[in-house]
Structure to design on (164 residues):
């Protein structure tokens, strides 16, 4: 129960800090501001400004892509659920050794069994491929958007605000 309250507190803090910084979709998808940068310096300055300005939107995109990656990889989803469910079940139902016939089953042996089954299952579900797909897809989307969207008028005043 304590873990549940801790998770809800973290979600509330995330909502207060990051979700309030989400930019409106009409501003994020403003196709009137799309243009090709003239040179590399302009592209770098756009990326620098837009990644700060749209950071909450970009984190939301990464989260959506992460959920998509998990949902389209059922073996990865199953193996993660198996491992986390196994940890939770062992901690909740088997904190003390249990005598079964002549054998004593300890928490250590249950964890060993969970690892012997769970780690190869996790390896077969290719979490590294999913992670690198997530990094590649999100970086292509984020860098492409940040490079192509012209900064708004408010970007002209950021250097003034930073110097004050």
């Amino acid at each position: 129960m304590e873990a549940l309250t801790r998770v809800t507190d973290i979600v509330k803090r995330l909502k207060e800090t990051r979700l309030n910084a989400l930019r409106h979709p009409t501003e994020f998808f403003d196709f009137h501001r799309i243009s090709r940068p003239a040179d590399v310096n302009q592209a770098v300055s756009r990326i620098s400004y837009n990644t700060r300005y749209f950071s909450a939107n970009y984190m939301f995109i990464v989260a959506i892509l992460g959920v998509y990656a998990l949902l389209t990889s059922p073996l990865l989803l199953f193996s993660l659920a198996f491992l986390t469910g196994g940890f939770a079940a062992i901690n909740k139902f088997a904190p003390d050794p249990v005598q079964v016939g002549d054998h004593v089953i300890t928490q250590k042996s249950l964890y060993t069994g969970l690892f012997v089954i769970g780690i190869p299952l996790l390896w077969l579900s290719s979490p590294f491929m999913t992670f690198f797909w997530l990094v590649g897809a999100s970086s292509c989307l984020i860098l492409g958007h940040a490079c192509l969207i012209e900064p708004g008028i408010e970007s002209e005043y950021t250097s003034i605000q930073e110097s004050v």
Remarks:
- Residues 79 and 122 are 5 Å apart (CA to CA).
- The first helix runs from residue 2 to 17.
